[in-house]
Amino acid sequence: MASLPPAEGFVESGKTRIDPSRVKFLGVYETLKSEILADSEAFQYTDDSRTWVERMLDYNVPGGKLNRGLSVLDSFKLLKNEELSENETFLACALGWCIEWLQAYFLVLDDIMDNSIIRRGQPCWFRVPKVGIIAVNDGVLLRNHIFRILKAHFCTKPYYIDLVELFNEVEFQTASGQMLDLITTPAGEVNLSKYVMPTYLQIVQYKTAYYSFYLPVACALLMAGENLKKFDSAKHILVQMGTYFQVQDDYLDCFGDPEVIGKIGTDIEDTKCSWLIVQALMRSTAEHRQCLLKNYGRADPYCIAEVKKVYNELDLQSAFKEYEQESYKNLTVAIEEEVNQALQVVLKAFLLKIYKRQK
Q1: What is the pTM of this model?
Q2: Are 205 and 173 in contact (CB under 8 A)?
Q3: Which helix (H) or strand (E) is 137 found in, with range?
């Protein structure tokens, strides 16, 4: 059978397709990591502390799909619509890594709060021997590294203050979304009356959509010299896209393959206000509701199986496929209405990356 040609922008190395942008992006990570480990302006490392931070960074920052970070570089290229200089490429990559650092900070702490087991195919950082609760301080360090990077590489740029304010605002929005998630579904308590669509949408928009979808494009727009206040319509589209992304995540948590998604889903035992439980309650009979009340939020494998049985009886897999098609249709229409043609291309590229994803 003839093999498919390499995708545009890729080169083949043996049987492996290598994305040049990803290779360059990973190279910038090594540069930024070296700068952080050599940064003595505010703190003098000991040998042990430098070794710890390097190990912590390598374990938590570059191990994901890197879509958020790479999206800054991709978006900036599309907005500029011309060959980037080496410096522009480096700066776009550096901003992308700031988002990956932000993601790592959120995930390290999120895994502790959720008592998770696996993240990106390996034990969560706090479960690594000799790490434990030190992971909390590591999360704080990750957050602070972002502003060290911004200061080192962007303090002379006219948009520096805008960048700092953007990261601060998005971090606040994300932490507020996490807070809303946690107080809506406190551990050991199941109150099904809280699992309603308006609450769910508010959680996912603030917890996921702003930092995963709006932030990369906003960074690229600032680098391109744009005023973010002019792009409210694009911001709305990106937040809606982020909502669709989180619904996918909720679906995959239950129905995805752990080997593919890189983690074992825990939304049911963690009492999460997920799209699936909200949909189940909207469609459930009294018998289904009683079953969910009895079993949701319990770590017992039997209880988890009972909840999944209700999901299957309500055919939530079909409901998700319908939602996915409708979301794709609505987002496509909204993107076509975007006046800025370069931004329209950026938004289409984002949607293409996530449509019908499996991980």
Answers
A1: 0.88
A2: no
A3: helix 134-154
